[in-house]
Amino acid sequence: MSKKHGKHHRGQKHGRGVTDGDDLNATAGSDRPSTARWASAVDTLAESEPAALRGHRATPIVAAPGVVAVEPGARFDLASVEADADGGLDKAWAKEALDTERARIVALQERLYAERSRSLLLVFQAIDTGGKDGTIRAVLKGVNPQGCAVASFKVPSSEEMDHDFLWRYHARTPGRGMIGVFNRSHYEDVLVVRVKGLVPEAVWQSRYGRINDFERLLTESGTTVLKFFLHISKAEQKKRLEARIADPEKHWKFDPADLVERKSWDAYQQAFADALSRCSTPDAPWLVVPADHKWFRNYVIAKTVADTLAAMDPQFPEAVKGIAELKVPD
Ligand code: ADP
Question: What's a Pfam family this protein contains (predicted)?
Fold first, then answer.
């Protein structure tokens, strides 16, 4: 699809259809389309919308050793994944291979940005010290900052609390051509919220289905959703917390609240296992990454991102016709 075509299709035709079509009572003869005309415009749009269809097909590719894709609909036992697994890889090799995967990501991201038709959302969840920040830094190093947006979700503001729980996340999903990164995500609303009892159980229980619907909306709209759970052991968390206490350069990362949260380790593991079991879908599966070894974690995630982008196969837009004959005026 040419850039021009894509832009026109999305920005104008789609926009006009939705705005005019919102008024379903518009009568024939007015300058607005009738309901029937509106419906057929939507049909035409769906049939001729390669971006959405291609985006829908571009499900995550999991070909890296040691990464476990949670089977949709199955009960998932988090303890079945060894947090210190390394897929039998050699550390020095994996560090070099990481550079190769990063180079693939950078090249493919340029195409994704130029195509401006689809997007990729990377979701990172982990227990405190699980390595979300380090992963984002390692995997996305070198990516054009203009084509990538990271959203870090903290305790909701009062404005965010005044809305439905998905409002703040939906507002930060990546636009066409972009890679979006969620450092924590809509899953917090079935994790910390559940563990700390911030809402009644009936409320958080209702959220798993809503999350699946939300992610289906995204995938059917041309966003490929890659969800990584960084799985560390309780012993590794202890080591990382101790390192933050011992090293003055890491003091800024230390939050005494993490020591309190650690007491709820088992409750968090249960909440993670439920979220992974109930929200792993064919289009947006949960990927569990053994994350005690940072070098292993970085390599397998970079490879999964690169493979998934390659499967999306973004294309540069067609050049303007006759470009080779064009002359730039003096
Ligand atoms: P991080 O640990 O991600 O580096 P912070 O130390 O600022 O960042 O922690 C963010 C905090 O916000 C975490 O304790 C997390 O549980 C909390 N949080 C995120 N989303 C929500 C939410 N929807 N409701 C309540 N707390 C949340």
Answer: PPK2
How many percent of the chain have pLDDT more than 70? 83
Structure tokens at 44: 């035409």
Ligand 1 neighbours (beta carbon < 6 A): 128, 153-156, 184, 188-189, 192-193, 255
Question: pLDDT per residue over 57-105, tens digit each?
Answer: 578 888 888 999 999 999 999 999 999 999 999 999 999 999 999 999 9
Single-letter residue type at 237: Q
CA terminus-to-terminus distance, the chain: 32
Mean pLDDT of the chain: 86
Atom of ligand 1 at shortest distance to CA of 191?
A: 16
Question: Is 41:21 a contact under the CB 8 Å cutoff?
Answer: yes
Q: Would you say 71 and 278 are in contact if contact means Cβ atoms under 8 Å apart? A: no
Q: Is 257 left (phi over 0), alpha (psi -120 to 50) or beta?
A: alpha
Distance 57 CA to ligand 1 centre (A): 33
What helix, strand, coil percent values describe the chain, rounded to 5? 55, 10, 35
Nearest CA to ligand 1 atom 4: 133
Domain 82-312 sits in CATH at 3.40.50.300
The alpha carbon of 30 and the centre of ligand 1 are apart by a number of angstroms equal to 51
